[in-house]
Design goal:
With 304 residues, the chain is an alpha/beta fold. Helix content is 45%, strand content 14%. The chain is built from 10 helices and 9 strands. The protein has a 5-stranded mixed beta sheet, sandwiched between helices. A two-stranded antiparallel ribbon has the order 6-7. α5 packs antiparallel against α6. It is elongated.
């Protein structure tokens, strides 16, 4: 006997609803806000008889300026374009996107696919023609807020740099750790020391890498062997002689997140900032060899 389930008309009319939650940093108060967002939307969707919960799409600790880097956001867009979502709930326009141009592109893309976005704080729907002007205005404000935050951060870093203060943050340096704001050699200090001493003695980078492998040296973030680029970076890093160069590159653009070389910036060089891993004599020998090799390379290039 074959039994066929008859779908009630009410079930056919149910809207497939999802929500998007994002916080830009993982500070405790924002994580709490994030969890609150997720729980609120889940309860809201499940309380509606004519709504069906598709899922809560999440991005933690990610800026809203670049949609490509938000995996949860991209999955939501893909599912919506595949017809899996009818309505998307978002706490605010700034949670959806802080890049005005990107926000408008995605909203129009979803509208063409008959997907509605409801921005709760602003109380507007993307399908309401009268709300488009408000949406464009508010998304521009969200972008300007990000720009203002970025400028304040740059200003703070500049003032700290002028005082010779700059913490490593996530940019840890092989052979050092930061203790009470001061760089201190750690258990891996022997690795850059070996690199500098062997290079100063005329040993090639290829041989240095072989010696590092033989001694079981490990890179900070990867388990594979050292690369030429890593060796070159270490040999040019003044931190190993005890100096610091603050603001080596221009501040990053708040939209592209890449250094903006069109903008002026100031660098500050601090001599004897902390304990060096190598002597200044070794440092000078290495820099002289680097300059000599670069000069020979440029001469050969011109001759060609």
């Amino acid at each position: 006997m074959k039994v066929t389930r008859i779908v009630h008309e009410f079930e056919k009319c149910k809207k497939k609803v999802a929500a998007y939650a994002r916080v830009s940093t993982l500070h405790e108060e924002q994580v709490e806000s994030f969890d609150t967002q997720v729980e609120y939307f889940r309860k809201l969707i499940e309380s509606k008889a004519d709504w069906e919960l598709v899922g809560i799409y999440e991005d933690k600790g990610i800026s809203g300026l670049n949609a490509e880097k938000r995996n949860g956001f991209q999955r939501m867009i893909d599912d919506a374009m595949d017809g899996k979502i009818d309505i998307i709930l978002v706490k605010s326009i700034s949670r959806f996107a802080r890049n005005s141009q990107e926000a408008q592109i995605y909203v129009h893309q979803l509208k063409e696919n008959h997907v509605e976005i409801w921005f709760e704080r602003e109380g507007i729907s993307s399908l309401n023609p009268q709300s488009e002007i408000i949406f464009n205005f508010m998304s521009a404000i969200a972008q300007e807020e990000s720009k203002s935050i970025s400028e304040n951060v740059k200003w703070t870093y500049q003032r700290l740099a002028e005082q010779g203060i700059r913490h490593l943050g996530n940019n840890h340096v092989l052979g050092y750790e930061e203790i009470n704001g001061k760089l201190v050699p750690n258990q891996d200090a022997w690795i850059p020391k070996l690199i500098f001493e062997e290079y100063a003695a005329g040993i090639s980078s290829k041989e240095i890498i072989q010696h590092l492998d033989q001694h079981g040296a490990k890179r900070m973030r990867k388990k594979d062997s050292f690369k030429y680029s890593t060796i070159n970076y270490i040999l040019r890093n003044e931190i190993y002689v005890g100096d610091r160069k603050i603001q080596k590159k221009p501040p990053v653009d708040y939209l592209t997140k890449k250094p903006d070389y069109t903008k002026p910036y100031n660098s500050f060089y601090i001599r004897n900032d902390h304990e060096g891993i190598i002597s200044r004599e070794i440092w000078d020998k290495v820099q002289d060899r680097i300059k000599s090799r670069a000069s020979k390379y440029n001469t050969k290039k011109k001759q060609k």
